[in-house]
Amino acid sequence: MKVAVVGYGYWGPNLVRNFSWLEGVDVKYVCDLDRSRLDKVSSLFPNVSITTTEYQQILDDPEVDAIAIATPVNSHFQLSEAALQAGKHLLIEKPMTDTVESANRLVELAKEKDRVLMVDHTFLYTGAVRKIKELVDAGKIGEIYYFDSVRVNLGLFQNDVNVIWDLAPHDLSIMTYVIDKKPVSVSAVGVSHVKDGLENIAYLTVFYEDTTFAHFHMNWLSPIKVRQIMIGGSKKMVVYNDMENTEKIKVYDSGVETKPGSKDELYQTLVQYRTGDMYAPKLDQTEALRTECRHFIDCIVKGIRPISDGEFGVQIVKMLAAAQASIEQQGKKIRLDSL
Amino acid sequence: MKVAVVGYGYWGPNLVRNFSWLEGVDVKYVCDLDRSRLDKVSSLFPNVSITTTEYQQILDDPEVDAIAIATPVNSHFQLSEAALQAGKHLLIEKPMTDTVESANRLVELAKEKDRVLMVDHTFLYTGAVRKIKELVDAGKIGEIYYFDSVRVNLGLFQNDVNVIWDLAPHDLSIMTYVIDKKPVSVSAVGVSHVKDGLENIAYLTVFYEDTTFAHFHMNWLSPIKVRQIMIGGSKKMVVYNDMENTEKIKVYDSGVETKPGSKDELYQTLVQYRTGDMYAPKLDQTEALRTECRHFIDCIVKGIRPISDGEFGVQIVKMLAAAQASIEQQGKKIRLDSL
Amino acid sequence: MKVAVVGYGYWGPNLVRNFSWLEGVDVKYVCDLDRSRLDKVSSLFPNVSITTTEYQQILDDPEVDAIAIATPVNSHFQLSEAALQAGKHLLIEKPMTDTVESANRLVELAKEKDRVLMVDHTFLYTGAVRKIKELVDAGKIGEIYYFDSVRVNLGLFQNDVNVIWDLAPHDLSIMTYVIDKKPVSVSAVGVSHVKDGLENIAYLTVFYEDTTFAHFHMNWLSPIKVRQIMIGGSKKMVVYNDMENTEKIKVYDSGVETKPGSKDELYQTLVQYRTGDMYAPKLDQTEALRTECRHFIDCIVKGIRPISDGEFGVQIVKMLAAAQASIEQQGKKIRLDSL
Amino acid sequence: MKVAVVGYGYWGPNLVRNFSWLEGVDVKYVCDLDRSRLDKVSSLFPNVSITTTEYQQILDDPEVDAIAIATPVNSHFQLSEAALQAGKHLLIEKPMTDTVESANRLVELAKEKDRVLMVDHTFLYTGAVRKIKELVDAGKIGEIYYFDSVRVNLGLFQNDVNVIWDLAPHDLSIMTYVIDKKPVSVSAVGVSHVKDGLENIAYLTVFYEDTTFAHFHMNWLSPIKVRQIMIGGSKKMVVYNDMENTEKIKVYDSGVETKPGSKDELYQTLVQYRTGDMYAPKLDQTEALRTECRHFIDCIVKGIRPISDGEFGVQIVKMLAAAQASIEQQGKKIRLDSL
Lengths: 339, 339, 339, 339
Fold this sequence. Notes:
Four copies of one chain form a homotetramer.
Chain A: E1 2-6, H1 12-21, E2 26-31, H2 35-44, E3 50-52, H3 55-60, E4 66-69, H4 76-85, E5 89-93, H5 100-113, E6 117-120, H6 127-137, E7 144-154, H7 163-178, E8 183-191, E9 201-208, E10 213-219, E11 221-233, E12 237-241, E13 249-258, E14 271-280, H8 288-302, H9 310-328, E15 334-335
Parallel strand pairs in A: 1-2, 1-4, 2-3, 4-5, 5-6, 7-10
Antiparallel strand pairs in A: 7-11, 8-9, 8-15, 9-10, 11-12, 12-13, 13-14
């Protein structure tokens, strides 16, 4: 199996490193427009055969089975379309593309060409998220009431994407993976503190058909780094604090059981409280990207469907696009099926 | 100075205790409809002269200078109006009333009768909030960019008020006190997980004329207790964690300085980062309610205007009412001047 | 059942309050040499019949069944001896007395007079310590390897007792309760930073016959407050952090399993590591002193033996006395059976 | 400047990496007895000219200016002596050697040969420790009363050194660097929970001529990882928590001021308390080993004396040897000038 990694900026080296570790996988190419970046490849990864600034060279090489794309998001569609047209399997850095249309187009094309199309939503492959998914699927959490995410820090202000496109793909992918229901609409508010700049703080809400709902706080202007997700269920509640070195996941045997109550009485409690033990399950420590790269190769070899496949990627792009539209309409609720 | 405390549920005993400690102040009456509650007064506060279920008795007593009302919110207006009509100075538990109209009516009446009207927004009198106010007023924080508040825990589901009316008055009062700008509009989303119940999770956003904005997360269904406010300014940033025993306030000498940048370059940084020392100022440990009760008496004696006066209370009620209206209109932005 | 509380300083009011709450128990007397302290009793506890500065009055009153002593430690023996001689059941504030001899004498006297003699080691009655005891007794922790305690804060420098006599009784009592083995010897070091003063920082080690051992750090001069006990066992390990509001007890399914290894190989691992889940059991939130006072009354009524009986109290005093002797001999190991 | 790194186990790669980054420095050799380790050098560090299992080859190469030794401690003396004899400058991994005699011998030899002899006490070069040193030297902390260190985790049981020789060099080096006084004696206790094994838990105390003293807790059998040093001074107190991502150093404006008091009065406070602001200074984030390697090269080039020179290394070895002797004599205080 021969792989090419396209884009050697922040994330590219991680892809090269993890694909290099996999047995039976060769990283034949690393491609980037910036020659100075490529110069670093040979010393760090002497196993990489060829570095090139010419993407076409990779497309033309029949030995290349799969391409991993880690370039800025506005180039994803063009590079991906060409890769699928050339018959390559594809792993695209998240977010998949910058429009719903182009994301959908890639899904169709992958079907047409019968190629694996996977989006690099790395968080799904962490020990922590896999554990949450396992708990939810086993019915331990019960019905999910809410999903609340905070991802804030003093971050790099970017000028090609706003804070939602930068940070929300992580949390939206976790939500989509964990909650087995269809989101219906999205609203978002955000502001920029840079003149004519993109939003650097934003809040996003995702609504479902029932009362389940999800909320996201994204902020490049926070003095402290917070990476926390709370999931409230009818049976148990989960707090996932990614800043903890150990005990990232805490499962609380706490909750409420509601029962009918008269509205006439003041301060009457309608619910029964339950607080019990908390436990922090042991998590698989394998690097998420390693698990993911192996999954990508497995999907190609065994013909299975990736966890974060093209359709999954489309859902995330839809919510991002809806959030964008909502901000522009002052927080108006945008139906996802309208996109 | 003779004071009466009306309502002896959760908060009433704290009012009695704190007024009892003040020199020159007598708690002449404690009033509650529930006789069994009054029975506890005499053993705990032998200094209280009279306990009564008859509010009129207090109104009729010319010796009573001031009344503190700590009853459920739907009774605030009626009790307050009568008190002001009877010429008493008034301290009302927050939120002031349950409608903007009634809150405004009390402000007018207090003016008419030349009585002190104060709303019991206790948080304003904590050492922590007073320190934040002091820092902001001294220009140490710079221009305030955002105010983010999280107030969540496994809380009592109430059936006369939703989670916004229960929890938001705290944080809205802090925001109003600290940010010396006029909020323009409010949007909010919330859900109830109890059939036909009131919202138990809600998110609220307050918009200002400029890019300043504030966000609030309120939740009765969280497995962990969080009470945290972040304030981002152009010069410094503040994190106020009320769950810390010490070091409740942390001031970060961190921030960004923005400067014009070209949008053509990808990933170009438009901002300059600054991270410096953090410090946690020593805070006054006096019980907030004690400081507040003293302030109330001072306002009466010296004829000064309370920090949390009637107008202040009206602003909070306006935002609560706007939030309510917004939830009912699916998160629509509600202008405060429309109320 | 009629009870008298002797000593109304820091701890006395807690005893009065908790005994007052117990059904079938009357606090007939509160006694203190300081009249001004007694003046506060009547307003706070109108249920107390008599306040007195005359201890003899209590001894002479045949109605009094039991006496609780909460005076400075140097008066414990004299007051206790008189109480037992007068046929009263006895609860003594920890440490029991200031010498091993006097503590032993009280045990003998209580036996002779057939009275209940209990020492107020309150920590044993907390939900946290009871849970640890339960886990240990159920064999969940396995063999206990070590017990490490840190109890430090910016504390009141006292001039009748040093930091060991002030703070160590808490942790020594927990150790004695939890570890079902006989300690053999004690060593301690400590210094005073006040000229001619008593030690304000000390470290104490308790040795057992096998390799189990316990260590204690006590410090009145720490900028932060730490109250933490770690217990390492062959099966599981426990961390008890008393500064946590919730999750005070964490049980780690971590440990090592040792097996023979050759010493010839460098860096060879002799042990197998195991890290698994952590869990924080729900704890009983009842106030410890309430549980303890009820236990004291139960022991009198039902003729059962107190958990923290006289013999228990003697063991603690022995270790304190040994620690004192060790400090004076520069950390020399002092055998407990030599005292 | 040409450097050779000897020993390519856990620490060696870090030395190679950091020396490789320094301008004007070539890592000419990497030496290890294990050929399989050397095989990894070329791919990771293609800049390294020669890998060898023959130490003599390095000694014989006149181009090699300096040798860094990162082998197990029992080989330090032999390798170091040969290096100095061959006229090479020397950086030895801590602890310097395993006996006081051999450490002293190296100091003499370095003087004789006029070579730089430096011990790799990396912690001294961290931003955190440099900041503490700066505060102490500027008189901000005042007179140092105590130094308390806890360094515990579930660690690798080693069978060539016990937990003291493994962990204490870090904290003893920080203490020695920060406290500008001469330690006088050492006592230590420790136990092994492995049959015939080396101590895996130990407590160590260092005494000074005055009342300053230092205490160290080292433990390979702790379920949680703690890396914390508290330094109490007459003016301020410092808590250095190395497990914090940010705010590793907290400086507390807290303390006590002692004054004469009568011993006759019970519970009389002899001291005045002061609690003020806390602040967490910004720390230099440069990798400590990088700073250290640069310092080593500077010392060679400019003829200056290393912060952690041979004499410094000897002091640490002396305390380790004294601790060992103390454990064998059941915690007896061992004078350092007796070694």
